Amino acid sequence: MTTSADLPLRPGIPRPATAPGGEELPEAPPAPVADCIADSAGGLTFDVEAPGRAESWDAALLLRRRGGRDDSAAGELRLPLVPAGHGRLRAVLPSTVVLPEGRWDAYEAAPGTEPVRLVPGINDLRTITDRHPDPGRGSVAVRIPYTTKHGNLSVRSWLRARHAEAGDLHVRDEELAVEGRLYGAVPGPGAVAEARCRRDPSEIRTVPVAADGTRFSFTLPYPEFAGPWPGGDEPWDLWLRPSAGAGAVRISRILDDVADKKAVFGYPARPLSTPRGPALIGPYYTVDNDLSVRVTEPAAGKD
Question: How would you classify residue 112: left for phi > 0, otherwise alpha for psi between -120 and 50, otherwise beta?
């Protein structure tokens, strides 16, 4: 299904120079540009360039959840755009306003017209480069503005009651050592890390977790993944179970300014001997910035 994020910007849409009757067509107006500033609490401020409209009070910044229904109230959030001086309109998304987890495409909406996709200007994300929320808080909320593959402005939102933030990853010849921090809970007796086979959920590899307050660490021995490998591409998703009997928490890395780590963070894959022959194994981040391990054939072993 094609979403609004997959559509090219209006300036890039090929337009005929004339109408069928030979009449010249007006050029499409440029898409409005929005600068975005993040604050340390998780709020976002959008400054939209609006020459000729800078005193308007009837426009809104529309965030539309990708994959949702356009007529669903839960899939849209409207923020008033108000004059901010210097030829700009401003909208504020406070940290206290809940933005459900997902990808939200940004538009400028005015009465009587179709919403227009915003183009990113300057994203000032210095305050969220290395966030350290209070580990005792009941939830973790993260919003990161980013540029889509077609040059539009969107916001990636995470909202998790408990969160296991991945820190340093130490890739060794036969093991992966993971460090991190748990939010919304404290690792206790019986804490374990689980690697769950995406193909077969009954295949789970469990290792003990060492904890120091809310900080945790564990080591995954690579040979444990050799037996179940059927060939091809085999992902294993990493979870943290804070204590015996507690619900597991997906291990992710979201407390920085990188919205899509799969395209940015690369880790080496190590050789793995399996009953089916040689393979490669290594960690990677998924499209949702969740941490996983992948076993694959040597020819295809690229993250």
Answer: left
Q: Please tell me the predicted confidence (pLDDT) of residue 9.
A: 34
Say which residue, 222 or 6, is predicted with more confidence: 222
Please check whether residue 125 is in contact with residue 258, taking contact to mean a CB–CB distance below 8 angstroms. no
Quick check: pTM over 0.85? no
DSSP β-bridge partners for residue 44 = 38, 93
DSSP tag of 19: -
The three-point CA angle 213-214-218 to 5° equals 95
Distance (Å, whole) CA 41 – CA 258 = 17
Q: How far apart are CA 236 and CA 204, in angstroms?
A: 9
For 199-237, how does the pLDDT look when each residue is reduced to its tens digit (9 = 90+)? 999 999 999 999 999 999 999 999 999 999 999 999 999
- Same structural domain for residues 131 and 8? yes
Q: In the listed set 160, 180, 214, which residue is the last one of a domain according to the structure? A: 160
Compute the distance between CA of residue 36 and CA of residue 52 in angstroms, rounded to an integer. Answer: 21
Q: What residues contact 134, with CB distance under 8 A and at least 6 apart?
A: none
Residues 67 and 194 both lie in one domain: no
**CATH for 259:** 2.60.40
> 183 with 135: CB under 8 angstroms?
yes
Structural domain boundaries, residue 246: 163-300
Condensed to tens digits (0 to 9), the pLDDT of residues 14-25 reads 344 444 555 554
